[in-house]
């Protein structure tokens, strides 16, 4: 007997000679069993299981043969395999079948998210939809009108939040502007008030740092006319320091001299104000003297000394009120490409009543250059600047950096040598010309007078400047040097730069 079936057949009798082809065909394809059924049948419900009934897989069913004695073993729906062996019927992954065989998608419909499970599969609708994914009844939970309302509401909230942030920022910038003296400085001549955005553009988002110290950082910036500027972070201005900061900016705005770094403007919309100065390309005198070992001619050193003295003289005598620098040192004297000196860093400048002194509780500036009287008594005068300038002269003569100790041996040893006519022992070894040595010995005597312990015995900066000019007049190459007579008017380059700011 030839029987077509999709099931396996098993007989408890000898089956030798009968060929079973079922496991060579996929599910759903009929197979030919060429053997005769033997006696035996499925046990009735609740009846005893007789020996030889071999449907041993838990995911299968026993089915009586209809055309002959015997029985069939059949895997349950959604299972496939051999029902006559343990674990022979395995779960079908309908979701994988749909993916790998598109022609089976109609057999396993799913209009949502297919999720396999033992004995079948589930198909919930996609997020935002409701219904039955197997029956194809998924519909959107929210109609188009509701979506429009929700999206519009979210957009409105975002706009409101952005506006709130912008208003908060504007109020914060306004508060900084007023705290840093904006209402006063806005009407000051020669000073331009820059916005935070403009400073960011000028520095290319603060990309290049050209200086750094206890005061903060200095950034390189570029104006619209391509001129370079130095943008410096100032000290934090607390409420009690507001007037002091404003006064210092006003002082600097009046300083227009070829030997003083020009203050161009400031930005007040920040917690820490920023000051915009002209950019001086070569850097400060300290670095040129002690970090670059190139030979520096005596004539160049004299030009630096005289120019620096001119700048300080102008500062001490300009305007109706007396001004002092407060931190004169080689690091605060900048040099341009032609070694023209420019006095810089007015961070500690104060308005002083002419002829009066000021008491202070805090030491300001570099200890190596500070007047001993200031250290001991807290008395500040313009003669304190003269003392600091005397230390700078020693550095120009010896090319040895100033140092500080309790005995002030740096200054004391130099003064002692000069008084003993041994100043040439301290002169820089690069200086070998006898004429140049003579010139530096003359400068040494000026330095000694600047460093006298009693401020009343020190000369003022105007007198120091004149003495240095007399030394230059005696130099062999005086005819090749520029005219160092005092000129308190702005240099042509400074005038051009200032005019460009107002455009």
Task: List key phrases describing it.
alpha+beta; Laminin; Phosphorylase Kinase, domain 1; 6-stranded mixed beta sheet; 13 helices; elongated; disordered N terminus
What does this structure look like?
By secondary structure, this protein is of the alpha+beta class. It has four domains: about 1-90, no CATH class; about 95-140, Laminin; about 180-280, Phosphorylase Kinase, domain 1 (2-Layer Sandwich), CATH 3.30.200.20; about 285-490, Orthogonal Bundle (Transferase(Phosphotransferase), domain 1), CATH 1.10.510. About 35% of the residues lie in helices and about 15% in strands. A six-stranded mixed sheet has the order 12-16-17-15-14-13, with helices on both faces. The longest helix is centred in the N-terminal third of the chain and has 36 residues, at about 145-180. GO terms for molecular function: ATP binding; calcium ion binding; protein serine/threonine kinase activity. This is Protein kinase domain-containing protein. Keywords: ATP-binding, Disulfide bond, EGF-like domain, Kinase, Membrane, Nucleotide-binding, Serine/threonine-protein kinase, Transferase, Transmembrane, Transmembrane helix.
């Amino acid at each position: 007997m030839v029987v077509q079936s999709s099931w396996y057949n098993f007989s408890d009798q000898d089956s030798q000679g009968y060929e079973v082809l079922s496991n060579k065909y996929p599910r759903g394809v009929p197979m030919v069993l060429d053997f005769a059924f033997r006696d035996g049948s499925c046990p009735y419900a609740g009846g005893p299981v007789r020996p030889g009934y071999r449907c041993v897989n838990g995911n299968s069913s026993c089915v009586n043969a209809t055309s002959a004695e015997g029985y069939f073993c059949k895997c349950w729906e959604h299972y496939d395999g051999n029902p006559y062996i343990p674990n022979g019927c395995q779960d079908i992954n309908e979701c994988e079948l749909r993916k790998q065989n598109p022609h089976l998608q109609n057999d396993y419909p799913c209009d949502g998210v297919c999720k396999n499970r033992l004995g079948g599969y589930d198909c919930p609708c996609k997020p935002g939809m409701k219904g039955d994914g197997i029956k194809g009844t998924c519909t959107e939970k929210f109609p188009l009108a509701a979506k429009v309302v929700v999206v519009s509401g979210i957009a409105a909230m975002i706009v409101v939040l952005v506006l709130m942030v912008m208003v908060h920022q504007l109020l914060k910038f306004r508060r900084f502007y007023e705290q840093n003296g904006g209402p006063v400085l806005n009407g000051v001549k020669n000073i331009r008030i820059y916005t935070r955005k403009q400073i960011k553009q000028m520095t290319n988002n603060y990309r290049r740092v050209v200086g750094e110290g206890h005061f903060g950082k200095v950034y390189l910036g570029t104006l619209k006319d391509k001129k370079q500027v130095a943008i410096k972070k100032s000290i934090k201005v607390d409420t009690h320091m507001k007037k002091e900061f404003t006064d210092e900016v006003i002082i600097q705005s009046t300083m227009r001299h070829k030997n003083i770094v020009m203050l161009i403007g400031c930005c007040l919309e920040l917690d820490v104000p920023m000051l915009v100065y002209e950019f001086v390309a070569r850097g400060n005198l300290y670095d040129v003297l002690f970090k670059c070992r190139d030979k520096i001619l005596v004539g160049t050193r004299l030009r630096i000394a005289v120019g620096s003295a001119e700048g300080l003289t102008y500062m001490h005598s300009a305007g109706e009120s007396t001004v002092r620098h407060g931190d004169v040192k080689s690091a605060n004297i900048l040099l341009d490409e032609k070694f023209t000196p420019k006095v810089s860093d007015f961070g500690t400048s104060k308005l002083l009543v002419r002829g009066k002194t000021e008491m202070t509780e805090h030491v300001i500036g570099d200890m190596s250059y500070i007047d001993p009287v200031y250290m001991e008594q807290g008395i500040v005068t313009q003669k304190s600047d003269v003392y600091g300038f005397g230390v700078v002269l020693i550095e120009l003569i010896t090319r040895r950096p100033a140092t500080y100790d309790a005995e002030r041996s740096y200054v004391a040893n130099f003064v002692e040598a000069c008084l003993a006519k041994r100043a040439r022992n301290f002169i820089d070894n690069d200086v070998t010309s006898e004429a140049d040595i003579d010139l530096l010995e003359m400068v040494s005597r000026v330095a000694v007078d600047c460093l006298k312990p009693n401020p009343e015995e020190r000369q003022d900066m105007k007198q120091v400047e004149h003495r240095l000019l007399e030394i230059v007049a005696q130099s062999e190459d005086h005819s090749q040097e520029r005219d160092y007579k005092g000129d308190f008017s702005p240099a042509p380059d400074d005038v051009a730069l200032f005019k460009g700011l107002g455009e």
